[in-house]
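Workshop exercise sheet. Pairs work together: one partner reads the sequence aloud, the other fills in the structure field after running the prediction. Swap roles for the next sheet.
Pair: D.N. / O.F.
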Amino acid sequence: MNRRLSAALLTVSATVAMPLLSVAPASALTVTVGSIDYDVTVFNGSYNSNSALFQIPPAGQVPWWGNDMLAIDFAQQVYDQLGSGSTPGNSPVFAYEVSGTDILGISQDLGDILIQYPETIADNAAVKYAIATPLNSAPASVPAPLPVFGAAAALGWSRRIRKRITGSKV
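Structure field:
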């Protein structure tokens, strides 16, 4: 009977704990911009070879694309945490626009958080670009009836155990 009680308690504990547990993805660097968390990493390559990356998510991995002020905000948030970019003393490039055959971007001075530099890079030049992926902060979804079935099973086990306990006392 003690073994069954332990099994019932384990079932109830697992039913309650499982929805609360979620596995968070590993991140290189997490920054929050505009109340959204982003995983920011470095990509080494050219625009021409990887133009699909240079779009706003979910299609691409450059949420600041088309917005130089947002690129500056990301560069300041990241500051020196991604290390040096292709230009010594500067961060990787936060590219935000195509202008003819050039890519326009911002790089952060690694010695002073208040200084950013405009960058103009040939679209076929391989440099270190910053890219970012929005993190899914919502817990992994569980099919709606699953927690209900778990609670019902736990309730059934507890009633069964209660009947056995009250039956053995009489």
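Discussion prompt: The chain is about 30% helix and 25% strand. What would you look at next?
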